[in-house]
Recover the amino acids of this structure.
């Protein structure tokens, strides 16, 4: 029976129904070996992908660390603008000094209208001391007149608060850009040598 079934296999073709051949024993050793080989290959592929993923992540982290180091080393240096790394402390100092100066002018205008005697004393003090020095000016004023020093401090804080509300940083940036462009255009017009009228005339002989 086994031999007849085996002889009938070539006539069936590629599609064989196992239920119709109950006496035929199919060897499973080859299929099991193939499954094991495929499983081993999948494990190898999975491990290789995992190793490559770890390597790529480690390389990415190394690149990010190197970029951070390079960014820390970068220093913007300008011949006229000074040297800045992370802060603009000198700019902040200039702003505070300017608002101190502006507060002194405001207080002087108020004293001129309300208290001429104090105005005269404060005027002489401002002549002898520079209000643009900011903290140094207020410290010196506090030793002479504590009330005026406190008035200047309150006034400069009030003026700075008003300036913050009115200041448009985008507009200031645009104004600086436009002014730079206008100055470069003026300088270009000064350096360009325009042709004279004589070079454009044709001689008629």
């Amino acid at each position: 029976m086994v031999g007849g079934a085996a002889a009938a296999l070539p006539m069936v073709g590629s599609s064989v129904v196992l239920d119709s051949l109950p006496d035929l024993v199919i060897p499973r050793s080859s299929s099991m070996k193939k499954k094991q080989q495929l499983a081993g290959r999948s494990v190898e592929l999975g491990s290789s992908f995992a190793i490559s993923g770890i390597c790529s992540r480690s390389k990415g982290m190394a690149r990010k660390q190197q970029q951070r180091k390079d960014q820390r080393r970068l220093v913007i240096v300008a011949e006229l603008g000074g040297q800045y790394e992370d802060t603009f402390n000198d700019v902040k100092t200039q702003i505070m000094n300017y608002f101190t100066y502006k507060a002194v002018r405001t207080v002087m205008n108020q004293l001129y209208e309300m208290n001429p005697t104090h105005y005269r004393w404060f005027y002489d003090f401002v002549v002898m001391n520079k209000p643009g020095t900011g903290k140094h000016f207020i410290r010196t004023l506090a030793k002479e007149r504590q009330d005026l020093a406190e008035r200047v401090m309150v006034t400069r804080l009030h003026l700075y608060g008003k300036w913050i509300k009115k200041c448009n940083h985008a507009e200031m940036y645009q104004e600086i850009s436009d002014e730079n462009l206008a100055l470069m255009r003026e300088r270009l017009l000064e350096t360009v040598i325009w042709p004279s009228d004589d070079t454009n005339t044709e001689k008629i002989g």
